[in-house]
Automatic annotation (TrEMBL):
Lineage: Eukaryota, Viridiplantae, Streptophyta, Embryophyta, Tracheophyta
Signal keyword on record: no
GO molecular-function terms, A-Z: actin binding; ATP binding; calmodulin binding; cytoskeletal motor activity
Keywords on record: Actin-binding, ATP-binding, Calmodulin-binding, Motor protein, Myosin, Nucleotide-binding
GO BP field: actin filament-based movement
Stored InterPro entries: Kinesin_motor_dom_sf, Myosin_head_motor_dom-like, Myosin_S1_N, P-loop_NTPase, SH3_Myosin
UniProt protein name: Uncharacterized protein
UniProt domain Myosin motor: residue ranges: 62-411
Domain Myosin N-terminal SH3-like: 8-57
Domain of life: Eukaryota
Cellular-component GO terms for this entry: myosin complex
Cytoplasm found in the keyword field: no
Length: 411
């Protein structure tokens, strides 16, 4: 469609620009395939006609709310439209029934309050400004009217806003499918509170996103005949395991580690914790704090969310014992042992962390040392125990930490 457009002197066009992606300008001469464009920056460039895109001179300055209304649906046209809308604080735009969200990187609470939700309730798709609530409402109504399950796919690169958009969708579905809150733990509140729990254990600061989900998830919300939420299931996929033992500056390990180090004093004592700077699994990076985040408050909020979701206090204690044990595991260093190519914990400090890990895992100290410093090979005829050198023992320590963490997360 785009290739068939011919350009003459005076045509308004878009051309690629190394600094601003696309820049607009006016054709000042045409020489076969070569088109000379005077850009709005004042620069003149000569480009092949196949790299020139028509600009709609009648496009409204504030953009259009549905990009199917654009005269030209090509990359510069789409980006220009999104930018025009973003400049007037409109972060959502439709392309037909697809919603495009541009991350505002600032809280916009007025967009997501209950007044807003009631506005979208039952409104025809496209009648109100583009919004995740409209997408959720359309899905909810289709489900009710046709009695067929609906799916909403949220995709985008890291930091694009998938997690936040998913939360808005869940918030709206909980609003539509909620019942009057007579009991303390309503299903919809449990559905919503699963987010902080998952984020505590599956999110971390990365270069691009302070709260990056390091796993994929499939959220299923079930409704009864009357459209009330009757249950929910969340499946998670492919947690990034390597982060548990390896963090590069200025990223962080999973949030739960830092939260636990900021727990109330009696818990710090129970889990034998110290400053996060003293743990190898955390101090490989110099980033310990997040702007505007109080880890001790986050810890209490996570505990509360775990209560709502229905994780018993014994289970919560076991979870945090495992988290603390992993931190202690990371601080066990190895030196050569007495036998050839063997290893043992390096010094009193390593023994301290080993004992702490064993106590928290509720396992036998000797068995833990053996599992780190030896490898058991089972053949058809016999069982062979092989000593590991310090390097291999360190690798087996990290493998244990990763396996335990990812099993805990799956649980
Ligand atoms: N609608 C929004 N309103 C306010 N802030 C937002 C919105 N969407 C995203 N953000 C901000 O951008 C950050 C990154 O968004 P989010 O975590 O949703 O991205 P993501 O696509 O899920 O990234 P990842 O794939 O790394 O998990 C959020 O922590 C939040 O600060």
């Amino acid at each position: 469609m785009v290739a068939s457009v011919t350009f003459g002197v005076g045509s308004l066009v878009w051309v690629e620009d190394p600094d601003v992606a696309w820049i607009d300008g006016e054709v000042i001469s045409v020489n076969g395939e070569d088109i000379k464009v005077l850009c709005t920056s004042g620069k003149t460039v000569v480009v092949k006609s196949s790299n020139v895109y028509a600009k709609d001179s009648e496009a409204p300055p504030c953009g259009v709310d549905d990009m199917t209304k654009l005269a030209y649906l090509h990359e510069p046209g789409v980006l220009q439209n999104l930018k025009s809308r973003y400049d007037i604080n409109e972060i959502y735009t439709y392309t037909g029934n697809i919603l495009i969200a541009v991350n505002p990187f600032q809280r916009l609470p007025h967009l997501y309050n209950s007044h807003m939700m009631s506005q979208y309730k039952g409104a025809a798709f496209g009648e109100l400004s583009p919004h995740p609530f409209a997408v959720a409402d359309a899905a909810y109504r289709l489900m009710m009217n046709e009695g067929v399950s609906q799916s909403i796919l949220v995709s985008g690169e890291s930091g694009a806003g998938k997690t936040e958009s998913t939360k808005s969708l869940m918030q709206y579905l909980a609003f539509m499918g909620g019942r009057s809150a007579t009991e303390e733990r309503t299903v919809e509140q449990q559905v919503l509170d699963s987010n902080p729990v998952l984020e505590a254990f599956g999110n971390a600061k990365t270069l691009r996103n302070n709260n990056s989900s390091r796993f994929g998830k499939f959220v299923e919300i079930q409704f009864d005949q009357r459209g009330r939420i009757s249950g929910a299931a969340i499946r998670t996929y492919l947690l990034e395991r390597s982060r548990v033992c390896q963090v590069s500056d200025p990223e962080r390990n999973y949030h739960c580690f830092y939260m636990l180090c900021a727990a109330p004093p009696e818990e710090i004592k129970k889990y034998k914790l110290e400053n996060p700077r003293s743990f190898h699994y955390l101090n490989q990076s110099n980033c310990f704090e997040l702007n505007g985040v109080d880890e001790s408050k986050e810890y209490l909020a996570t505990r509360k969310a775990m209560d709502t979701v229905g994780i018993s206090s014994e289970d919560q204690d076991a979870i945090f014992r495992v988290i603390a044990a992993i931190l202690h595991l990371g601080n066990i260093e190895f030196v050569k042992g007495k036998e050839f190519d063997s290893s043992m914990p390096k010094d009193e400090k390593s023994w301290f962390h080993l004992r702490a890990a064993a106590e928290l895992f509720m396992c036998d100290e000797k068995s833990l040392v053996d599992s780190l410093c030896k490898r058991v090979i089972v053949t058809r005829d016999e069982t062979i125990t092989k000593e590991l050198d310090p390097e291999a023992a360190t690798a087996s320590r990290d493998a244990l930490a990763k396996t335990v963490y990812s099993r805990l997360f799956d649980w």
